[in-house]
Amino acid sequence: MHGLPIANDLKRDDPSRTVLWVAEPAPAAVLRHHPSVDEVVVFRKARGLRGVMELRDALASRPADLTLNMQRYFKSVFPTLFSGAPVRLGLPRSKTRDGVSWFNTHHLPERPWRHTQDLFLDYRGALGLPEDWPVVWRVGFSDAERRDQAAFFGALPEGRRVAAVVLATANPKKDWPTERYAALVEALQEEMGYTVVLVGGATARERAAAKFVVEGTRAHPIDATGDSVRRMMWLVDGADLLVSPDTGPLHLAHAMETPVVGLFGHSNPWRVGPWRRYRDLVVDRYTEHGSPPDPSAYEPKHGRMERITVEEVLDKVALARERYG
């Protein structure tokens, strides 16, 4: 998500420029129908050597003039080299690991750690693009997806706000305890008048959490979890509010201007949380009490998600209603 503003900038600077994006399957789905991305090449890293060879073959017929490596991990080396680009611009050397910087020909200037979005915006200066352009994401949907979205939300009870809730992440240590989600969903529905929609993937953990919340409460949330990234996207886009830990739907909500209450304890919200917008809605158990926000802090903190209470989340929901409608 943090790279999308740069793709928009490249097209704004020269509409004839071809923007090709290499992504793993889930983020590749997010890029579908994006107005500034001409082509998406899927890197199936989970296939090991076979996936690397498939990527090499896919890029062999697509020579590039410039590659922007916005990753700090070794997996980014493969598309960087296979692009064949004579200019390969990457993150500052100190912000990469696993020897990634050795495969780039140019690097962003060294600066203190900031929010990841601010770090990515440094590509503007390196590319000679105006640094005062508005930062936009422009996530796109097809006409068919908009019809599906309208049908789904049109079938919900009229006059009630919709709160989407994400129950789990790819990293269990980032998750909030499932039993607290159950209490939260009850309060959202019975005390605050929301229709609650559960969104997310179809992993065993997510399905178990959804089953617990649906069957273990007096509330009647709609279980919309599943394996369609695109459906998850238009659910988040159509909701009035999202409650989520540090995972993809949170960043999508921010990009699509859906107010999001972010739950952070394991990871640093001032580095990877909402950027500028909706930071007032973050429940922060990562930052030590009395300490100022510090985006340079990187190490995960264990056992912090359990410190977030249902009452704190509901307070942020109330704040979202007051400030964002």
Give an account of the 3D structure.
The chain is of the alpha/beta class and 325 residues long. It has two domains: 4-127, Glycogen Phosphorylase B (Rossmann fold, 3-Layer(aba) Sandwich), CATH 3.40.50; 146-324, Rossmann fold, CATH 3.40.50. The protein has helices at residues 4-13, 25-31, 49-60, 77-82, 116-127, 143-154, 178-190, 204-215, 229-238, 248-255, 269-272, 310-324, and strands at 20-23, 39-42, 66-69, 87-90, 106-107, 162-166, 195-199, 222-223, 241-245, 260-264, 283-284. The strands form three sheets. Strands 8-7-6-9-10-11 form a six-stranded parallel beta sheet, sandwiched between helices. Strands 3-4-5 form a three-stranded parallel beta sheet, with no helix packed on it. The chain has a two-stranded parallel ribbon with strand order 1-2. The longest helix is centred in the last third of the chain and has 15 residues, at 310-324. The two termini are 25 Å apart.
